């Protein structure tokens, strides 16, 4: 469970996040949606501690982030996994080495143990036979799977994904979305996903935070998003011709 | 940034592997070009010296002497370091810069790894082996001078060997190695800095590598002046 209370963040005097409050629940895929530039990535990086928030409170379960010392934050970090927009795999390492890496760096497990855990996770993301390939030899969808495997190999309590299916075809995108959702449910992870893709919203939008220019303009779920009369949300949802057509057919 | 290089270090076993990889990339990978350049430039120095000796009063051993002095004092430590600013420096900037733009550095940070230590520390340690490369360059430079002298019939083998032993001061070698160690630190840190703090995309990686090369060579030249002033004058 992550709770945000009135989070603000500015860069050089420009306020990018303007008082965001929200609760992200465990075992659910929590989506942050909104137009490009609305502040999704900045919010995610604040959650990860890559950006310092200016004011407001962040709680991870019962721990207040603001009151933690350096050591406490480091421990908290180890309970987080992140899937970056461009996968961010280490390109000098093979798939298996990428997934083994966090365990090698941060645990005292022996090599054989690390290898068997990594292989199991790679199998979980349905990527057999790619263990010894380099990231450059993989398709975008396969790279995403490796990134997911690397993010969850340390059994995180919190998983963050920045546009996990951008650059993928619709079918692969849904497979990746569902993979993230299954892993979230299996391990009761608090997962927060940035997206601007309506397919993801319909597929995995358990909880949805809609950002517009750094403000929380709406909050709800995939069941509610098509029936709201919030103008900003409708504007976003029905921005594509496809969605407009569907709406016309319905009414 | 320098403080971050040394605090919260990476696990010993992992770090050892990283250091070996960097020694391979930065040091061993440079030996070829260093050997090639040293041999030929050493040869040119001796040809130039020989051609400029016109007076019969000047002993022929001057060719060996001049080759030794210029190779040991300047060519091997300074000139080679600048060549390596191009080779090693741009490799360091572009490899770290690529990791920055593809969010690999963020990925390290998110895992709770001190990315500065992970990336920069092994480069500093491997560059401590630069004196070995420079030593190699000195040897090949003088050998090149010798080969050119004999091959071109500029002076006799005995004269050249007498020249390279003439008035030999070990302190000059010490001076060259002190310089080299300082340049090694410059070669490891300035390109790392430009790669680590770069912003933008793939195009900017190339630009950062160029800027890093310019700064590295300028700093080397300026430090060379001050170190020489301090140690030899
Ligand atoms: N490091 C930074 N320094 C200054 N401004 C920033 C920084 N990062 C983001 N911004 C600004 O914050 C705003 C929100 O950016 P953000 O990257 O969060 O958008 P986004 O919603 O993730 O968009 P996209 O869907 O395109 O990824 C933008 O106006 C951006 O210019
Ligand atoms: Mg973004």
Folded structure, characterized:
- The complex is a heterodimer of chains A (251) and B (233).
- By secondary structure, chain A is of the alpha/beta class.
- Chain A has 2 domains: 2-79 and 161-249, P-loop containing nucleotide triphosphate hydrolases (Rossmann fold), CATH 3.40.50.300; 90-155, no CATH class.
- Chain A has helices at residues 40-48, 70-77, 95-106, 111-124, 140-152, 170-187, 198-204, 231-237, 241-250, and strands spanning 2-11, 14-24, 29-33, 55-60, 63-64, 80-83, 158-162, 190-195, 207-212, 215-220.
- A 6-stranded mixed beta sheet of chain A has the order 6-7-8-3-9-10, with helices on both faces. A 4-stranded antiparallel beta sheet of chain A has the order 2-1-4-5, covered by helices on one side.
- In chain A, helix 4 crosses helix 5 (140-152) and helix 6 (170-187) packs parallel to helix 7 (198-204).
- Chain A is globular.
- With 233 residues, chain B is mostly helical.
- Chain B has one domain (9-231).
- Chain B has helices spanning 2-6, 12-27, 31-52, 62-101, 104-110, 115-127, 130-151, 157-165, 170-196, 202-231.
- Chain B starts with a helix and ends with a helix.
- The mean pLDDT of chain B is 93.
- The chains are: A alpha/beta (251), B mainly alpha (233).
- At the A-B interface, strand 6 and helix 3 of A face helix 5 of B.
């Amino acid at each position: 469970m992550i709770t945000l209370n009135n989070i603000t963040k500015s860069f050089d005097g420009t306020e990018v996040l303007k008082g965001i409050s929200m609760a992200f629940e465990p075992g659910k895929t929590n989506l942050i949606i909104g137009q490009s530039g609305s502040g999704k990535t900045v919010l995610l990086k604040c959650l990860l501690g890559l950006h310092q928030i200016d004011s407001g409170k962040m709680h991870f379960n019962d721990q207040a982030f603001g009151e933690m010392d350096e050591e406490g934050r480091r421990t908290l970090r180890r309970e987080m996994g992140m899937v970056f927009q461009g996968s961010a795999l280490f390109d000098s390492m093979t798939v298996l080495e990428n997934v083994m890496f966090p365990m090698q760096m941060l645990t005292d497990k022996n090599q054989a143990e690390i290898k068997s855990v990594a292989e199991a996770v790679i199998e979980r993301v349905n990527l057999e036979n790619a263990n010894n390939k380099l990231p450059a030899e993989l398709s975008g969808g396969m790279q995403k799977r490796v990134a997911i495997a690397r993010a969850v190999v340390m059994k995180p309590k919190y998983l963050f994904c920045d546009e996990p299916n951008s650059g993928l075809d619709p079918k692969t995108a849904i497979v990746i979305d569902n993979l993230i959702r299954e892993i979230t449910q299996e391990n009761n992870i608090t997962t927060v996903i940035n997206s601007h893709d309506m397919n993801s919203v319909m597929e995995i939008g358990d909880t949805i935070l809609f950002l517009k220019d750094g403000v929380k303009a709406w909050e709800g779920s995939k069941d509610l998003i098509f029936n709201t009369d919030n103008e900003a949300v409708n504007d976003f949802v029905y921005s594509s011709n496809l969605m407009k057509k569907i709406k016309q057919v319905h009414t | 940034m320098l403080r971050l290089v040394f605090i919260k270090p990476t696990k010993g076993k992992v770090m050892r592997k990283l250091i070996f990889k960097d020694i391979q990339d930065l040091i061993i990978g440079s030996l070829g070009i260093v050997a090639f350049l040293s041999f030929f430039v050493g040869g040119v120095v001796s040809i130039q010296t020989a051609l400029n000796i016109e007076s019969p009063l000047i002993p022929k051993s001057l060719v060996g002497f001049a080759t030794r002095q210029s190779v040991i004092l300047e060519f091997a430590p300074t000139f080679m370091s600048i060549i390596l600013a191009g080779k090693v420096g741009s490799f360091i900037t572009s490899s770290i810069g690529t990791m920055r733009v593809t969010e690999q550095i963020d990925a390290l940070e998110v895992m709770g790894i001190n990315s500065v230590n992970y990336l920069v520390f092994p480069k500093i340690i491997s560059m401590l082996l630069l004196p070995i490369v420079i030593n190699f360059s000195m040897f090949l430079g003088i050998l090149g001078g010798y080969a050119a002298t004999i091959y071109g019939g500029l002076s006799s083998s005995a004269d050249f060997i007498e020249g390279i032993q003439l008035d030999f001061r070990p302190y000059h070698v010490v001076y060259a190695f002190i310089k080299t160690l300082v340049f090694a630190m410059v070669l490891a840190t300035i390109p790392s800095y430009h790669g680590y703090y770069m912003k933008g995309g793939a195009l900017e990686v190339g630009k950062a590598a160029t800027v890093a090369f310019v700064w590295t060579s300028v700093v080397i030249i300026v430090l060379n002046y001050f170190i020489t002033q301090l140690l030899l004058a």
